[in-house]
Amino acid sequence: MTSKHLTVAALAIALSCAEISAQAPSRHVGTLVQAGSHYTLAEFHDPNMRLQFTNDLSQYVDEVVDLTGNVRQSFTGPSLDFDIASIDLADRAFSSDEVGVLGESVRLRVDALGSANFFVWVSTGFGYQPLTTYGPTVRGVLWMDPTLVLSVAGGAMNARWRSDIFIPNSSYLLGMSLHFQAAVHEPGQPLLFLNANEMTFTNTPF
């Protein structure tokens, strides 16, 4: 099976098994940021989605974290809260440049604990789909609009994969923002969807 077939198959399996659960804790890998007086994940794209935890979260600001918990209606307003059951710095994560210059290359990177298959996708829209399954085969969140997803890369890796992707010098891309996300599948582990990064295209080198 080719890398392209692997990436398409992995996404299809995850979406076919996806189910939002308000009861069972779901696993989220994302970038923790401060939003006013509280904390959230950048991938929520909603500063009113508040992370609730008994301990101080300031040590995790701007870090990719791996957390479990439940989304619930806020007790103090119309927004939603995410009650954290556990949180750690993520040892599996995705990273990319935040700005892409037309006619130049951008760096994509996936980190895992060892040998794994990796998958990278891109979408023009963000989304929020916690992934639970009928068995322990898929974990994490699809942070992209599933109707607009394209495969970027995929294959085997050993602890780290990185690659430079050339961005065409096209006026169509100028000012556009794309959402990238990766997943890793390590032997004996569930397919884990990682954090997502947003990249905006410009024609001005920095």
Provide structural commentary:
- The chain is mostly beta strands.
- It has two domains: 26-89; 91-202, S-adenosyl-L-methionine-dependent methyltransferases (Single Sheet).
- Helix content is 7%, strand content 55%.
- The protein is built from one helix and 14 strands.
- The chain has one helix at 3-17, and strands at 26-35, 38-41, 50-52, 64-73, 80-89, 93-96, 99-101, 105-123, 126-130, 138-139, 141-144, 149-166, 177-185, 191-202.
- The strands form three sheets. Strands 6, 7, 8, 10, 12, 13 and 14 form a seven-stranded mixed β-sheet that branches. It has a five-stranded mixed β-sheet with strand order 2-1-4-5-3, with no helix packed on it. Strands 9-11 form a two-stranded antiparallel ribbon.
- β4 and β5 form a beta hairpin.
- The longest helix is centred in the N-terminal third of the chain and has 15 residues, at 3-17.
- The N and C termini lie far apart (40 Å).
- Mean pLDDT is 87; it is low at 17-22.
Please give the structural blueprint.
Elements: H1 3-17, E1 26-35, E2 38-41, E3 50-52, E4 64-73, E5 80-89, E6 93-96, E7 99-101, E8 105-123, E9 126-130, E10 138-139, E11 141-144, E12 149-166, E13 177-185, E14 191-202
